[in-house]
Amino acid sequence: MRIAETKSTAKLVRQNLHLVKGLYPGLVQQDFQTLRSLTRTLHLCVLKGEILYIEGKWYVTHAGLLQIAMRRRCLGIRTALQEKVSDLNACRWVFKATVYKSRRSRGFVGYGDADPSNVSSLVNGAEMRVAETRAVNRALRKAYGIGLCSVEELGWAPRPKSSSSSAEFKPSSNGNNGHQNGQPRLRDRLCLLIRQHQLDAGLVKAYAADYCGTPTLRDASREQVEAFINDLALRVAKDRDGLICQLNSYSKSQEVAP
Fold first, then answer.
1. What dihedral angle (degrees, nearest 10) is formed by the CA atoms of 168, 174, 177, 182?
2. How far apart are CA 126 and CA 123, in angstroms?
């Protein structure tokens, strides 16, 4: 069993290193060494969006933290709204999360807050869920000794819009994908792919809708969007030129469309 686990970890290290070379061309040797160490200790998977590289630093995602908790047989997580310090009128919410590692565990506590000033405009109205996610992330990191900050804990910093098409894929610092179900990380992963490989956001959107078999990308389910992003990441890493040719075909179809 120990040998099998070692081989599995080594395989994941190779997979992660291969993927990030395509996703983040500007990485230096220290970045690769950090990723190698994080993969070995936390067993995080780049392809599944469990770890992201943003502005020179590695960040774990909510999905990655939950996977760590599952692998280490976390007993449970309890959350509670802190009503005394929350403000309904200002859309400011504070949550307390407690992670129980075992039946004898007294619990590891983490707090999370969110309001319109520190979340993306894409999730205005969902501040309560963001606050709860941040609380859970902090409690999980404390419980399992993870010093790596999570994406969802980042505050929102406005970014200039380069174009109307790229604005549709503007990443949110709390990791939300921008769909109505409020699931994290998909939008950020797609934005990173577009920015890192200088893809046309409008053409990627058309390709995504075609891939998912829906009239528009907004009509696709989260599972469909996640499958598309995983496939896009592999394609752009292995054959960017071929992908560009396919994306350009959507540009021609848009020109002849009535």
1. -130
2. 5
Q: What is the pLDDT of residues 52-89, one digit of tens each?
A: 988 889 999 999 999 999 999 999 999 999 999 999 88
What is the per-residue pLDDT across 137-177, written as a single tens digit (0 to 9) for each?
A: 999 999 999 999 998 888 654 343 333 333 344 444 443 43
Nearest-angstrom CA–CA distance, 234 and 192: 14
Beta-bridge partners for 112: 95
3-class SS at 79?
strand
Q: Where are the domains of the chain?
A: 2-249
Q: What are phi and psi of 33, to 5 degrees?
A: -65, -40
Vertex 16: Cα angle to 45 and 162 (nearest 5):
90
Question: Are the beta carbons of 211 and 74 closer than 8 angstroms?
Answer: no
Beta bridge partner(s), residue 108: 99
Mean pLDDT of 197-204: 84
Nearest of 68, 58, 74 to residue 149 by alpha carbon: 58
Contacts of 117 (CB under 8 A, 6+ apart): 156
- Cβ–Cβ < 8 Å for 113, 92: yes
Q: How far is CA 149 from the centre of its chain?
A: 13
Three-class SS of residue 150? Answer: strand
Answer yes or no: pTM beyond 0.70: no
